[in-house]
Amino acid sequence: MIELKNLSKVYKTSEREIVALDGINLTIQDGEIFGIIGLSGAGKSTLVRCINLLERPTGGEVIIDGMNVDHDMKSITKEIGVVYQTSALDAKLSVKDNLTSRASLYGITGKAAKERIAALSEMLDFKELLPRTFEKLSGGQKRRVDVARALIHDPKILILDEPTTGLDPEARK
């Protein structure tokens, strides 16, 4: 499902080069749950950004579901859902409007969007939050809505960057 071949990422500053990823080779099979653990600054988030197409690697290849990110970027974005360390939702919009907007980016509109939002709000236990503005939610509530945002288009791959940040033990489960 995910294959990394000799993946590298180097950041260049005026003073020096910072090697964030250095020749990563990794294969994650369909159905596997995989975790990356490391110290702050070890390159975990950089790796996530390279896999989910937010950053271009300096070298190597990223293959997602048999597609190379260099050639099939548009198709690959439909296959990946990502929960970032910080929220990607609009603080001033309601939870429902945020999720409706995100769904529309994937061509999910009208009745299909309403049904998907209802299913996710039931599964992640936030139905009562749908009319509230995102900025008024607690950290754990925001995190559950962020997970729903990542799942709105029913992706094959779900990437969680710092997945338990802001979640209480029951929500983590």
Helix amount, in percent?
A: 25-40%
Strand content: 15-25%
Number of strands: 6
Q: How much is the average pLDDT?
A: 89
Number of helices: 6
Shape: globular
| Side-by-side strand order of the widest sheet | 2-1-3-4
Structural class: alpha+beta
Kindly, what is the distance between the CA atoms of the first and last residues, rounded to a whole number of angstroms? 25 Å
Stretches where pLDDT is under 50 for at least 5 consecutive residues are: none
Largest sheet: 4 strands, antiparallel
The arrangement of helices and strands along the chain is EEHEEHEHHHEH
**Rg, nearest Å:** 17 Å
Structure summarized in a few sentences:
With 173 residues, this protein is of the alpha+beta class.
Q: Can you offer a commentary on this structure?
A:
By secondary structure, the protein is an alpha+beta fold. Helix content is 32%, strand content 23%. The protein has helices at 44-51, 73-77, 95-105, 110-123, 139-151, 169-172; strands spanning 2-12, 17-28, 59-64, 67-68, 80-83, 157-160. Strand 1 (2-12) and strand 2 (17-28) form a beta hairpin. The mean pLDDT is 89.
